[in-house]
Amino acid sequence: MKRITLAHGGGGRVTRNLLKDIFYPLLDNEYLRGETDAAVLPASDRPLAFTTDAHVVNPLFFPGGDIGRLAVYGTANDLAVMGAEPQYLTLGCIIEEGMPVDDLKRVVASIADAARDANVKVVAGDTKVVGTGAADGLFLCSAGVGTLLPHAPSGAQTIQPSDAVIVSGPIGDHGATIFAARQSGMHIDVISDCAPIFPLVQAAMKASSQIRVMRDPTRGGLGAALNEFIENGSVSIELNAGAIPVRPAVQSLCDLMGFEPMHLACEGRLVIIVAAEDAEAVLQALRSVKGGESAAIIGRVDTAHPGMVYQRTPVGGKRIVDMPSGELLPRIC
């Protein structure tokens, strides 16, 4: 069969063949080989972090990634920013009737490549098939487990005045890529930053035991992440507009469409708030790791405007960076 049919989700021979022809060989590991209803995992002597995620990106394939790579990295990155080493993932596939089998193979192969890249194993999963028009190709649901490292972030409630704000690289690449991919005839010189961030997290945590909080700024971008950090606190964040790394192609797109780069999604960036005295050490640690070469200190925590994120502009003025209002780019992850 060249396309997925409802029989592929029926639980019989056709379903079995789908698993044996695509999922089991591409995702092969010791936990899947038993073909059991659940994976039995080894016990850990460290606390566990657990997360769940869902992925509905449109289009399924885009410059720099695809829905499969996004599912693995997105789930693993949510664990990483908690100060956990990602280890195990589960995967639920909601497949639309009529999806080309070759496209499904391509996605599962990408999941396998991304899992190796992120040093995680897909240990359990499920497949369902829905009728034509009910799922827009493919939706993925994932969950992840990781083990906490020593000196995990202490939490947003511990943010202090004078703490430094650091971002690991240029912002908005993923959001700009998805927007351009949806526009017929539009090309921009940027690809998604879809990537695992645990190496960045690990380097930062080795450089400082005073990291307050970390986040991968996905939906809502850097602006949403920073606002979430301080929304219930007595501090504010002042950003240096000129220090925030944005690629020229992303800035040009934002200028053309009226977008705010601070609100465009990233899928392979890390934002950190850390004690001021450790900021330079964390910055150099990030720059020594692939993906962190353009890391920058972009601001400081203060008490000037509690609960507010604002930018200091190049001409000396101030501009509020609010939470995004509404949905800027739906289905970007």
Automatic annotation (TrEMBL):
The gene is hypE. InterPro entries: HypE (IPR011854), PurM-like_C_dom (IPR010918), PurM-like_C_sf (IPR036676), PurM-like_N (IPR016188), PurM-like_N_sf (IPR036921). Residues 160-303 form the PurM-like C-terminal domain. CDD domains: HypE. It comes from the Bacteria. One of its GO terms (biological process) is protein maturation. Gene3D superfamilies: PurM-like C-terminal domain (3.90.650.10), PurM-like, N-terminal domain (3.30.1330.10). Belongs to the HypE family. NCBIfam families: hypE. This is Hydrogenase expression/formation protein HypE. Residues 36-147 form the PurM-like N-terminal domain. PANTHER family: CARBAMOYL DEHYDRATASE HYPE, HYDROGENASE ISOENZYMES FORMATION PROTEIN HYPE. Coiled coil: none annotated.
